[in-house]
Amino acid sequence: MAGGIERALADSGFDRAPWIAVALALGIGLWFLLPNPWAWVVVMAGCGLLAMAGAQIQSRGHFSHLGMALLALSLATGFGTGLVWARSAMIGAEAILAPTVQWYLGQVLEREEQPSRDQIRLVLAIRDAEAGIARKIRLNVPLDTASDNMREGAVLRLRARLMPPAPPMVPGAYNFARRAWFEGYAATGSVIGEIEIVEPPADASGLAALQRFLSGHVRGQLDGSAGTIAAAFASGDRGAITVADDDAMRDAGLTHLLSISGLHVSAIVAASYFLALKLLVLWPWLVLRVKLPLVAAAVGAGAGIGYTLLTGAEVPTVRSCAAAVLVLIAIALGREPLSLRMVAVAAAFVLILWPESLIGPSFQMSFAAVVAIVALHNAEPVKRFLAPRDESWSAHVGRRALMLLVTGMVIEIALMPIVLFHFHRAGFYGALANVVAIPLVTFVSMPLIALGLFLDVIGLGAPAWWLAGQSLDLLLWIAHFTAGQPGAVKLMPQMGLGTLALFVIGGLWLALWRGRGRLLGFAPAIAATMLLLATPTPDVLISNDGRHVGIVEQDRLLMLRESRSDYARENLLELAGMDGEPVAVEKWPGARCSRDFCSISLRRHERDWHLLMARSRDQVEERALAAACERADIVIADRWLPRSCRPRWLKADRRFLAESGGLALDLSEGEFASVAEREGEHGWWRGRERRERQ
After folding, report:
1. How many domains does the chain have?
2. I need a surface site. Which of 155, 235, 446, 499 has the fewest CB within 10 A?
3. Sheet strands (E) in 210-254
């Protein structure tokens, strides 16, 4: 067996660098997946033993490829697990125990403008007198209460309602508690009443002030939606983009254009590099004494780093900047700039600094797209297709346009499983929209915005801003037109983690392996596709507090309560893979509702399931309740129910939900999934369990 593996590694020209980055990611992923410290220790110890075995094999010299692969991959996997565990222990923020309303004195750490929501968002450092520690909280402040002095450095006195960061409402929903843990937030909430500025901030300075000034200046030059998009490109400020425009960009597969990442940083770096190169050539003295590609690369790197800092230095932007700098280094050294080794180094750089970014859609989508692009363009058939040849200008442009379309389709295929896993919806026309939108933004909109900012110094930027506005209006028209087409968006219920893992394994094998053996990557991808198509829609979704229940019946979503909360309604619709407005259970013909309870029967798999759901917290006569529970298969309540309430299958009351979190019930199989089974003993979940018990 060892000999066969050794020959396979030798025949494929096994390159350890990309696979080491994969192993590092695997170790980080195992920490999130496995439930407790004992399991994490076992992984690290097992990786250490495998690394020792690899070193022993390597020292004997019989299977050098196998020994080095085992040593490197095991060390990377174990290091990844320990790395994210250490980071969680160092920066994880314990949440407050319960919702609270009181007065706070705090210093502003960050300010985010959100005019599209008629608010600003402040991050404050406050002193928790009871716990005797400092806490970091995030508050929403209405625009009519906010002022310009509420910025970084100001000390504010205010009354606020704070909530612990919310865990997933149901299995597969957004896990804000986990994100807040790694960002250091102990609570989020909103301001009540007026805010007193105890100590004004220092004079506006720094990158945050420059970012706000730049965003406001751009929106002052361009009105409407075009101005909000231009502000996002220039400063990274997306707070003014309307919900309608944001949704259209998402459904058209163009959301990546709004997030300052690879496309924008690459455009800035490339423009700076080539502009510096062309201008420096005009200086003969410098040409004779200095290698101009080195100087131009330094200029491009400086521009990329400056743009990254200006736009907030978010993780996706830092990741893109690191990759762009690596490309510049490769160009300056005369090496191949677009290689999977470069992608691996950039991925390892980000994972070492922010290991928790691995499980976020931003990291996964960015690197999936880059790996797909590099692997596609390094394939021999593609190299032959793009090789220079004697041909007409129209044929040259046609080949490039066709390759751009093929690249867009490959990217969409690579991203679709990730998008469906995180957002439960995917746009099907994104490849076509991106064929026009990417060149439009890269070669028209962004250069015009940069030109407008430059000409504003001498007061002559109006023509450039008008042209930029026309190009951005065209971009928004493409987004709305694409998103409005029939079948533009596919909704799916929650994809299983195993299905996503099979997609990732297949994609990585196709991209990173060499030779005919890479075709084996189609096997897990095909298996994952079959599992995805067979993914069942949950029959019943129960929120973690028992207040919100979604029932899938006859292609409609029934809700126990007609909640005014967009958050609850959208979560239930997404996880059910449905669109449109839900229907109240009490209005459904087959339901029977009183002031305190609703009951409904569902026919699944040649069996009737009887549901009993509490609507109030008023006291009910125990004998009548016990009799009703005895007739029901499932009882759901947002309060504690007495032991005498014994349904035939499941009692999801407050006591049960405190342990399990939200539930997704599959009545056809007679089983359910819970939030708790995915969270284990990680810090953000242990804190919730303590709060519920109290």
Report:
1. 4
2. 155
3. none
